[in-house]
Design brief:
Layout (H helix, E strand, L loop, with lengths): L6 H21 L3 H19 L15 H13 L1 H4 L6 H5 L5 H17 L1 H4 L1 H24 L1 H10 L8 E3 H18 L2 E8 L5 H11 L6 E3 L4 E8 L2 H15 L4 E6 L6 H10 L4 E4 L6
Parallel strand pairs: 1-3, 5-6
Antiparallel strand pairs: 2-4, 2-5, 3-4
Helix pairs in contact: 1-2, 2-3, 3-6, 6-8
Length: about 290
């Protein structure tokens, strides 16, 4: 159950764009536009460098506001050289971003278009506006069209690039599939729940992913709870795997192992886990049948 995270290609594109803007900044004569292009290049380079640490950055941070402000500033300070960049607004509107940033970008696009009126003349200004408006509407339509896909991606996305750490929504889907797989192939499956201290959460998450097989996914259920689906040939191998995992993790946390056929409803299992008084508990298939 592996998935490819195309972080390398994304980083390569960001570095290429950063180098291009750095070259434009070097060739730009006005100091103001050179500074804006330099800031844009630095921002892209920083984004490329920190791309794999995106799990540390809250998804609500409106990073899209920066390219909109930089583009608007470039069109204001040096319109003679950069008027062609006006056509970048529809592309910016396609980026995933909060609604208020979309509204701000639309307002900035309108203001920068109007500020070019003296440079373009009346006829070209009207013509460019008639072309720019439909393109921006297409950009907005594309943004709205991708909203369901982005919501689904946020539910199933790996929370740390390179590690098989998935969301709670994905676990509910995988439980049904793995139960059927265990019955069909005659293997023994368990769900491991681990409640970690907040200051150890990401360390335990990385260790847990490292100690599991490639075909076994780990899940983040909330800011303190991890889960992993374990597959073994039989119950005896499952017991050995439990001891190996606990020895490798050495968690100062509450742990519960539940046979997949005893899981039942995930919400009910999590409630049993909350009420668990001991640090370690195993729930066998006969417990709920």
């Amino acid at each position: 159950m592996q998935s490819k995270y195309k972080v390398r290609l994304m980083r390569l594109n960001l570095w290429a764009a950063a180098l291009l803007l750095a070259l434009l900044a070097y060739l730009s004569e006005p100091l103001s536009s050179a500074l804006l292009l330099g800031l844009a290049s630095a921002w892209l380079a920083l984004t490329a460098t920190l791309l794999e640490f995106s799990h540390r950055r809250p998804a609500t941070v409106p990073w899209q506001i920066l390219p909109s402000l930089l583009l608007a500033g470039l069109l204001w300070v040096d319109p003679e050289r950069h008027a062609l960049w006006l056509w970048a607004w529809p592309a910016l509107l396609m980026l995933p971003q909060p609604g208020w940033i979309l509204a701000l970008s639309c307002a900035l696009a309108g203001i920068t278009w109007w500020s070019l009126a003296d440079l373009l003349g009346t006829e070209q200004t009207l013509f460019s506006g008639l072309v720019l408006l439909p393109l921006m509407l297409l950009g907005l339509a594309r943004n709205r069209h991708l909203l369901p896909a982005r919501a689904a991606a946020r539910q199933r996305v790996r929370l740390i690039p390179g590690l098989p750490l998935w969301s709670a929504q994905r676990l509910a889907i995988d439980l049904r599939r793995e139960r059927a797989r265990c019955r069909r192939e005659g293997v023994y499956g368990e769900l491991m729940l681990l409640r970690a201290p907040r200051n150890q959460f990401w360390t335990l998450a990385q260790d847990l992913c490292r100690l599991t097989h490639e075909f076994e996914n780990c899940y983040r259920l909330d800011h303190r709870t991890l889960a992993v689906l374990l597959l073994s040939r039989d119950i005896h191998q499952a017991q050995k795997r439990r001891h190996a995992l606990l020895k490798g993790l050495r968690p100062s946390a509450k742990v519960r192992f539940t046979a997949l056929n005893a899981v039942g409803a995930l919400d009910a299992l999590l409630k049993r886990f909350e009420r668990q008084s001991s640090d370690f508990e195993v729930e066998a298939e006969s417990a709920h049948g």
